[in-house]
């Protein structure tokens, strides 16, 4: 039997409306067209689907079996069509985010929380496990937005600026550099440098400060959590470089001192990388706007 969705919808409408005339109105068909459709369906099935001698019109046993099929299938089809319309209208989609900055969770999570309230039909995810291969994952379609401070020339990918930050050295309050007021690369040659477990090229302290000067710290210690890194610094077990907005919460901590990298400090910019074709999506424009404004609230 060749069964079409219109057959199932017609069967359901006739059952719910109790007759051909009202069902035809609901389906926006003529009564004659609906009658011919039912007759053709019955010929294919080889059985009567309706008890025509009853008023209102009732389904036969075979018709009831087919109605149960319609009640299972049609809601799924209706839901899929609604999702397609939402995607077409820009209300639905996917936003899987990856990060190349280990510390971005602090301001990104409030951004995502506000976003999901405004765009509940968009599928959200944060793919921290892809942090070291985030841009290739973006090209392959595995993620949709990458937070990065290192823009690259990548075909089909655009880097949208978010906000500026200053990589800043944090040392114990009694460290000699605290009195100096700033750090030169040579100052870190004898230090234990506490870093996040990231690719060296993605760490500002190396790419922007030590590597250009040809300086290697005495030891590198990798720590997952910011709070643990700061505890080690306060204990005199090393120094660390973090964005100024991460360290701003430590301004009243008497055990820590923050100083700029170099006499004038360093300034970096954070970007959101996304595929060029996604830039026109309304929900993507919304999350970019949040990503530019929410960090300012966080800083304040």
From TrEMBL:
InterPro entries recorded = HTH-type_LysR_regulators (IPR050950), LysR_HTH_N (IPR000847), LysR_subst-bd (IPR005119), MetR_PBP2 (IPR037406), WH-like_DNA-bd_sf (IPR036388), WH_DNA-bd_sf (IPR036390)
For this record, the Gene Ontology CC terms, alphabetical, are: cytosol
MF (Gene Ontology)? DNA binding; DNA-binding transcription factor activity
Q: Name one GO biological process term.
A: methionine biosynthetic process
Which compartment or compartments is the protein found in? Cytoplasm
What are the residue boundaries of the HTH lysR-type domain, all occurrences included?
3-60
Please provide the record's keywords in A-Z order. Amino-acid biosynthesis, Cytoplasm, DNA-binding, Methionine biosynthesis, Transcription, Transcription regulation
The record's family statement is:
Belongs to the LysR transcriptional regulatory family.
- What name does the UniProt record give this protein? HTH-type transcriptional regulator MetR
Q: Which organism is it from?
A: Paracoccus aminophilus JCM 7686
